[in-house]
Design brief:
Strand content: 5-15%
CATH topology: Ribonuclease Rh, Chain A
Shape: globular
Number of helices: 10
CATH superfamily: Ribonuclease T2-like
Strand order of the largest sheet: 2-1-4-3
Largest sheet: 4 strands, antiparallel
Order of helices and strands: HHEHHEHHHHHEEH
Structural class: alpha+beta
CATH class: Alpha Beta
């Protein structure tokens, strides 16, 4: 998909959603560093070019991700607390194929420090942003700026439930999280909201499923994750 088509598709796909909800994701503090170093990305795994049939917006729950990583230099922006306190952040926007996904498509372009810095409140890791562009974005569009623009449009169309309040609810389930996500986001459907847990039942990610037109679409089992009745624990980072 070329740059213009990608931006047009996501804009058309979320015209109704953008009208229905305020254009921002969630309220948290975020202080962006003045300078950003963007590492080179070495390809890991085989290149795979297959037709794109849809997309996944993976949203990491920061308190869980940062548990035990607070002092690591590589996660300083997201986890140290010096640059703010994060809730959900973007792990990546991933193209999907038929029973597989495209990855590591050929590109000579790198995400610039200015572009990465622009998106750090959404994706608070320069190394992650660089890798997501090379591994996934290169299979969607020609330029990293377009990849991050599309990601921002999707991100800014979302609102999130009060996870602090939900985390204190007895008997919290994956279905309850889906229900509250739908209450905050008109136009979404429960089968398009993947809830992913670690092996001990702690919330790790939401994976939002989109069709090729960037409208919410049913997740397959791999992306859907926990079933509605599955008990969930949410780490608040305290």
């Amino acid at each position: 998909m070329n740059s213009r088509r990608a931006a047009a598709a996501v804009g058309a796909g979320f015209l109704i959603a953008a009208i229905a909800v305020p254009a921002h994701g969630q309220a948290y503090q975020c202080q962006v560093p003045r300078s950003v170093w963007v590492p080179e990305v070495a390809r890991e795994g085989p290149a795979r070019q297959v037709p794109v049939r849809g997309y996944t917006l993976a949203l990491s729950w920061s308190p869980e991700f940062c548990k035990g990583r607070e002092g690591r230099a590589a996660q300083r922006m997201q986890c140290s607390g010096r640059n703010g306190r994060f809730g959900f952040v973007v792990h990546g926007l991933w193209p999907e194929g038929h029973k597989t996904w495209p990855q590591w498509c050929q590109t000579a372009r790198r995400a610039s420090p200015a572009e990465v810095r622009r998106n750090l409140c959404m994706m608070p890791s320069a190394s992650l942003a660089a890798r997501q562009w090379v591994k996934h974005g290169s299979c969607m569009v020609a330029r990293p700026e377009t990849y991050f623009k599309v990601t921002r449009i999707l991100w800014n169309s979302l609102r999130f439930p009060d996870m602090d309040r939900l985390s204190r609810r007895e008997g919290l389930t994956a279905g309850t999280i889906r229900e509250h996500f739908l209450l905050a986001n008109r136009g979404w459907r429960a089968d398009a909201v993947g809830v992913h847990l670690d092996g001990r039942g702690w919330l790790e990610e939401l994976r939002l499923c989109y069709g090729k037109d960037f409208r919410p679409a049913k997740c397959d089992a791999r992306r859907y994750g926990a079933k509605d009745g599955t008990r969930v624990k949410v780490w608040r980072g305290l």
